[in-house]
């Protein structure tokens, strides 16, 4: 019995001392964040210390998107809050002892906040900054990271500034301050600068003073942020310099930055994490479209020579600025605020560090050439539409085989562009040749030898489109991440899953496939069962956090499929709308089950948004609705084309739903297609409402509605009677 008691006591003491050791280990951890604004690939080549830091840990490219703009104010605000944001009020940061006409910063702080200052660095405008955030923005607040550190019993320090006399610019304090605007340690005053008449604004960073300040708080501050402002000052001063002088000063600034970074790099170790961040890229990099900034992490247990990734992007080598502060807080053992939507950085071996330059080159190439390629597709679609319409005017009509070829070519573009990355194009000529090659192999040759009728051709085209996209996303989405019609990691609206472009394509292709099967005479009962099972699987595919990850896609797929099934059955409009609502309910249940109840395996933006609604309640719902409404407003005010598209959709719907048309078309030889076109128009409406860029969904679903409709119209010969009527008139 005594042995048992002794054993239990030893186990209890071991547990107690083990817990103390873990707590002490967390307390001894330190994270050092070095902010160097305006660094691009040219600047990296002159920072050997960055290369050593990256090789000793992990590196990658960081998307600096802030949701609305790429101004420096928004870049620092987004880093600090962990959500897209901007500074909409004056940033006033002072050391507590700095004085103005109405007293010291500490006195003003107590006057405004109602409590004595507890820190050395004070964000005096913190209340105004948080109050200025609008309902359209995410619910994050400035000071969330500082509060999380304070709750965990940890302190922070910040050193350096980007002052440009007489303008003060001290944004690094936003990363360390709590919601009362206080940072325990640091110096952001002019003491961090030294007079230098040959430098921009007559000052330069005093690296020795900064390092001395760090040594003073090294044992007390768990988070230390350095703001190296010289490169930013030089960028702001560039217009006043000759190119030769700018180049000489830049080399000098980068050499000094490299020396300081070498010191910081030496501090990295198992219990000390070093993070190098450039909130924005240089002007030269921006001109080349290189909008992904360098990011490196070393120490803190990170293995050497790895590549960065995160649950935010699920992309090897590409992460988001939203992930920086969650990474720091996670390492220090502090609770990540629920408002932050980023995730801690991870390391991956999916690609090697040596492949990061190629990753940037390919990503930038897609970003800079996407508009030209999509403009070409738009011109092709316009020519096809004009060719079809011209058949009503015999005097100007384009040859019918040419028109049909243009219509089929446009319909096949989503599939061709999706498969194009297999050929690794490196120029616009490569794109043209690659698209032509894919079109000849996958579309033209089968159409010539295997698929003669329109329904069989649509069956072939939609079937291969569905298989290609679903199989690729199931295997990791290699093609989805590189397609010129898919999402763009530089834009940063989406990084994984199925974007709104191919979501619209998949939904429309699935419903059109069902119509083609009915048209060619497949057993109706079997076709219905297959369609219902396939639609359910496609809805689950979109709802899954590991696959499609598209809320609007799940809703659009379920709603469109339910409507198509009801219309094909010949049910009334009331019954059909009821079935559509039932389908939307199934989609919502699937989203909840996969992303909230069982979404722990693959964190996604759907789950994050759901948890924000759960935690934020009605206010968060209003924020989401306000952001979506604002997005729609901007889409329709930025260009006339969304309005033109809606007019075309309305005109097509008017022709489709005319009472006379319903008698002749809905019960005619192409009835399955006519009913499907009606369902696709309803689905386009669902996609328009349930997606931020719903106009893109509507456009691609309309492509699979109008162009097959025109092909059927031309095939039926109805254009001849219209042309003859016009001629006689």
Automatic annotation (TrEMBL):
Top-rank lineage group of the source organism? Bacteria
Q: Which UniProt keywords apply?
A: Membrane, Signal, Transmembrane, Transmembrane helix
What is the name of this protein? Answer: Uncharacterized protein
Q: What InterPro entries does the record tag this protein with?
A: Alkaline_phosphatase_core_sf
**Residues passing through the membrane, by range:** 371-389, 401-420, 432-451, 458-482, 502-522, 529-545, 551-568, 580-598, 635-658, 670-689, 695-714
Q: What start and end residues bound the annotated signal peptide?
A: 1-25
Establish whether keyword Zinc is in the entry: no
Q: What is the lineage of its organism?
A: Bacteria, Bacillati, Bacillota, Bacilli, Bacillales
């Amino acid at each position: 019995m005594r042995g048992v008691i002794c054993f239990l006591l030893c186990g209890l003491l071991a547990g107690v001392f083990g817990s103390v050791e873990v707590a002490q280990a967390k307390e001894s951890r330190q994270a050092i964040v070095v902010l160097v604004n305006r660094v691009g690939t040219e600047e990296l080549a002159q920072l050997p210390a960055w290369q050593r830091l990256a090789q000793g840990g992990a590196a990658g490219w960081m998307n600096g998107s802030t949701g609305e703009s790429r101004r420096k104010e928004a870049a620092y605000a987004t880093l600090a809050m962990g959500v897209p944001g901007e500074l909409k009020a004056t940033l006033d940061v002072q050391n507590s002892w700095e004085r103005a006409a109405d007293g010291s910063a500490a006195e003003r702080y107590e006057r405004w906040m109602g409590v004595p200052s507890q820190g050395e660095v004070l964000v005096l405008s913190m209340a105004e900054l948080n109050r200025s955030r609008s309902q359209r923005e995410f619910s994050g607040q400035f000071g969330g990271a500082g509060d999380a550190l304070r709750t965990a019993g940890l302190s922070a320090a910040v050193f350096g500034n980007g002052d440009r006399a007489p303008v003060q610019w001290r944004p690094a304090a936003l990363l360390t301050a709590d919601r009362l605007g206080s940072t325990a340690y640091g110096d952001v005053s002019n003491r961090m600068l030294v007079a230098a008449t040959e430098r921009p604004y007559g000052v330069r960073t005093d690296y020795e003073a900064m390092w001395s300040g760090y040594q003073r708080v090294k044992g007390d501050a768990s988070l230390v942020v350095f703001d190296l402002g010289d490169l930013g000052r030089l960028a702001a001063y560039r217009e006043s310099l000759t190119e030769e002088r700018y180049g000489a000063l830049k080399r000098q600034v980068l050499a000094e930055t490299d020396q300081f970074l070498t010191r910081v790099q030496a501090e990295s170790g198992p219990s000390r994490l070093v993070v190098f961040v450039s909130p924005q890229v240089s002007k030269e990099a921006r001109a080349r479209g290189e909008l992904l900034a360098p990011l490196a992490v070393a120490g803190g247990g990170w293995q050497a020579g790895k590549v960065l990734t995160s649950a935010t992007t699920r992309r090897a080598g590409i992460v988001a600025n939203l992930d920086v502060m969650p990474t720091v807080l996670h390492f220090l053992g502090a609770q990540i605020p629920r408002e932050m939507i980023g995730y801690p950085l991870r390391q991956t071996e999916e690609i090697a560090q040596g492949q990061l330059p190629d990753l940037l080159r390919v990503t930038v190439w897609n970003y800079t050439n996407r508009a030209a390629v999509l403009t070409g597709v738009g011109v092709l679609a316009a020519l096809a539409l004009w060719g079809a319409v011209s058949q009503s005017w015999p005097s100007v009509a384009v040859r019918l085989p040419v028109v049909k070829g243009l219509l089929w070519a446009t319909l096949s573009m989503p599939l061709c562009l999706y498969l194009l990355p297999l050929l690794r194009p490196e120029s616009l000529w490569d794109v043209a040749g690659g698209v032509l090659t894919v079109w000849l192999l996958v579309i033209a040759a089968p159409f010539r030898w295997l698929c003669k009728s329109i329904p069989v051709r649509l069956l072939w085209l939609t079937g291969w489109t569905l298989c290609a996209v679903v199989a690729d996303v199931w295997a990791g989405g290699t093609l989805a991440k590189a397609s010129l019609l898919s999402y763009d990691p530089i834009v940063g609206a989406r990084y994984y899953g199925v974007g709104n472009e191919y979501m619209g394509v998949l939904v429309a292709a699935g419903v059109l496939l069902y119509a083609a099967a009915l048209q060619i005479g497949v057993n109706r009962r079997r076709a219905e069962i297959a369609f219902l099972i396939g639609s359910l699987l496609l809805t689950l595919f979109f709802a899954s956090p590991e696959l499609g990850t598209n809320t609007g896609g799940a809703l659009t797929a379920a709603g469109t499929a339910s409507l198509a099934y009801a219309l094909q059955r010949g049910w009334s409009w009331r019954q059909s709308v009821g079935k559509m609502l039932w389908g939307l309910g199934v989609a919502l249940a699937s989203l909840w089950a996969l992303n909230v109840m069982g979404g722990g395996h693959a964190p996604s933006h759907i789950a994050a948004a759901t948890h924000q609604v759960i935690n934020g309640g009605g206010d968060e719902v209003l924020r989401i609705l306000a952001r979506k409404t604002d997005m729609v407003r901007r889409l329709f005010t930025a260009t006339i084309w969304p309005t033109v598209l809606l007019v075309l959709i309305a005109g097509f719907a008017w022709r489709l739903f005319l009472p006379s048309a319903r008698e002749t078309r809905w019960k005619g030889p192409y009835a399955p297609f006519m009913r499907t076109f009606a369902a696709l128009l309803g689905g386009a409406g669902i996609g328009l409402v349930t997606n931020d860029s719903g106009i893109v969904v509507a456009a691609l679903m309309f492509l699979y509605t109008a162009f097959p409709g025109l092909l059927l119209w031309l095939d039926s010969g109805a254009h001849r009677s219209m042309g003859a009527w016009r001629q006689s008139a």
